[in-house]
Amino acid sequence: MSPAPGALDPRRWRILTFIAIAQLMVVLDATIVNIALPSAQEDLGLSDGNRQWVITAYALAFGGLLLFGGRIADLWGRRNAFITGLVGFALASALGGAAQNSGLLFASRALQGVFAALLAPAALSLLTVMFTEAKERAKAFGIFGAIAGAGGAVGLLLGGVLTEYLDWRWTFYVNIPFAIVAIVGAIALIKEPEGSRNRSPLDLPGVLLATGGLVALVYGFSRAEEAGWGDGVTIGMFVAAVVLLTSFVAVEARVAHPLLPLRVVLDRNRGGAYAATGIAVIGMFGLFLFLTFYMQLIKGYSPVVTGVAFLPMVAGMITGSTQIATRLMLRVPPRHLMVPGYLVAAVGMLLLTQIGMDTSYPLLILPAMVLIGLGLGTAMMPAMQLATGGVQPADAGIASAMVNTSQQVGGAIGTALLNTIAASATTSYLAARTQVGMSEQAQGLLALEGQVHGFSRGIWWAFGILLLSATIAGVLINGKGASAARGQDAPAGEGREGEPVPVLAH
Prior knowledge:
Elements: H1 12-44, H2 53-76, H3 78-98, H4 102-130, H5 134-165, H6 170-173, H7 175-189, H8 204-227, H9 232-252, H10 262-266, H11 268-298, H12 303-309, H13 311-328, H14 335-352, H15 361-388, H16 396-433, H17 440-476
């Protein structure tokens, strides 16, 4: 039997465990395959030009279908969407692990993205409709936010261990036990609150425009990383994205039952949370990329040691989210956590701009990672609460999908933009210092110095990006919109007729 509207499900904390397992599986999959990619390329004979599709196929399907997945969760039920997403993701992972050629590998990654686009918003929206009491909601989102923030770094560690000690195929197979545990828990425990579905007709034009626009946008940035910003296809993708997404907004403003009700994103606090989160992710994904290469190419770390080196950042994120943000969320406005959080992360990023050929891990990289983890963990949890807080229950899935969309698009932009900046800086550095008659040893050393220079330049940009996130949070998030917490003492599920229920405290 489903809980009555406004009633707290007595099994909600046990359910959170299985939601967290599913979220960890989705988030770590974004990075776990990266470390295994060189081994998979050699085993399956992938060309250098095609190998990027192992990453791009997942990003395109996931990023492009998130809004559709969130709407399906609202329409069909979050429990149904959650379980279906888990089953599909596990089957796609099994296909990837067993792939004997590039076509099957690319197809499996695309299918993982499809089912992740259904699973991720369903998981977050289940939290939104099940945890309605302010203190409990802060704690639940603290746990969820820590997993969302740390999952990428955990993926690097797990990918390194599996690739080094087992086989690259286990970076796919490892998802299956995660999924099975989450499926069993979901079937046994999850019962959605009554009356929380959105049974309005599906906005098919909105689905086509949003999916096409997001796919074009994500592919444009992925293509830019490979072919450059002046490439004709890259420019064409960006033009198509602008046209399709502009058309999408125009359609959503007019149709009776929009895929993305504009009220979800036009709330000042919620829109600010989406923007600040997406921009911060640009810097975070770029950092993962640079530090992974830096530790392996410059410091000579193995994949496993590289993964272990990221653990202080994971610990910082967990501490920031569950100990700092969760404890202060109900005492101070969200922006008073988000702005300092992004600034602390920016200080850590500033330290990393000083990396060189002989930089000490314990003296510089370690404290920088701890600061970045603490800052992002503290900022991301209130951002996720604002992004989903105060929405009508029927909009919970689509609001959750917007959180994931901002993160996926931010990740695609960060990987492409910062990698391109770093590569350009490296090229300029080498061109200015290469001399005729240099020995091979000197040329090799210069090449490594050029790489470090490029990484440093990219991290400077990541520093500026975090400052921009802090500015957006400080300017846009004011605690006075529909997603703010005036009236957080009202019983869960109650409020003035036609208004979403405020859930956050200020």
